[in-house]
Amino acid sequence: MTAKGPAYEKEIPVRVNVQMPSRLRRGLDAKASEIQISVPELIRVLLRQGLAQLEKEELERQLAAGYEYLAGGDQALLEEFSAVDLEGWEEW
Description:
By secondary structure, this protein is mainly α. The chain is built from two helices and no strands. Helix content is 67%, strand content 0%. It is elongated and about 75 Å long. The N and C termini lie far apart (67 Å). The model has no long low-confidence stretch (mean pLDDT 83).
């Protein structure tokens, strides 16, 4: 780790061998040619985007679960104090 933290460390490339259908490879070749980048760079870009999307979806699931948990707690708290809230009020 450097003095600036792990985010500033140099990334060390690693080789990955991936098998895919030829139709997918042709699509990668065509898109890479269209946007004028190499196929390996296109794959890196798509992987980063896909991982970021998965992380975002997981965060959204966790937030939704937290909101549901808190909402349940809020309801329990409301019910617990409902008698006190109505104390001193005329009957409805």
